[in-house]
């Protein structure tokens, strides 16, 4: 029986990304993703700045939103800069350590964002269904603990998933058929039978993705029942629905793409199927989050306009 401990021959990986694309297509993709990256960094950075410094946005909803934007900045910075470099250079080789680090950061930030989105849904539930006790239930101390829980769980769970990803040595092909080191694709390159690691990651994804989603569904079911049961005006209902719709849109984008990447059998995957969903949850969603929240929130739009106005004047 072969000793897998001494059979690892892979010291680096080749990120295929958009290698098969023509030079003109690569130039177009580089320009597009550079613009998207710049917009995402600018808008998320502005949300972080105003939610953490403007006293008029001193509420749990904006506290969570600031941390969501920070996670989005971490998410896109983990993947897009490397992709941009690989679109203009011929050498797409990354070291083993760099690939494993990128995988861990995607695990870490992705898990933290899943949990944070669930806490944001709970915040909306308390605000709408228990408005008189909102300040006591969602105190500053509670909000800090909830955000800390999301970060710590992402940190610990990321370490566990990273271990499951590299528990077998790598001695097969070192070509990664995506634009970053995505775990399911990298695990398929390990020696022996990678199915156990994939099953563990699948089970973990079921818990990490579906558990927060259950909390989100329950929260919004109570919110919907509360709104429809009140004798409020149509304008008041519309404002409440608008606030919730922003969060639900983000949840649908993020969870749908993440579930496809980590909860589907590998037999249903392929480069043409993986890349669009990977782009959706690592690039498009972090860029859309600030647009969705700012465009559907008058208070946020007003604060952003004032912040931009002060910047232009200075």
UniProtKB/TrEMBL annotation:
Q: Extract the GO molecular function terms from the UniProt entry.
A: G protein-coupled receptor activity; olfactory receptor activity
Kindly indicate whether the keyword Nuclease belongs to this entry: no
Protein keywords: Cell membrane, G-protein coupled receptor, Membrane, Olfaction, Receptor, Sensory transduction, Transducer, Transmembrane, Transmembrane helix
Which terms in the GO cellular component ontology are assigned? plasma membrane
Membrane topology (UniProt) = Multi-pass membrane protein
So where does this one cross the membrane?
27-50, 62-84, 104-122, 142-160, 205-228, 240-258, 278-296
* Annotated ranges, domain G-protein coupled receptors family 1 profile: 43-293
Which Pfam family is one of this chain's hits? 7tm_4
CDD domains to which the protein is assigned, alphabetical: 7tmA_OR2-like
Report the subcellular localization.
Cell membrane
Classification via InterPro entries: GPCR_Rhodpsn, GPCR_Rhodpsn_7TM, Olfact_rcpt
Q: Which PROSITE patterns match?
A: G_PROTEIN_RECEP_F1_1, G_PROTEIN_RECEP_F1_2
The UniProt entry's sequence similarity note says:
Belongs to the G-protein coupled receptor 1 family.
Name of the protein described by the UniProt record: Olfactory receptor
Q: What organism is recorded for this protein?
A: Orycteropus afer afer
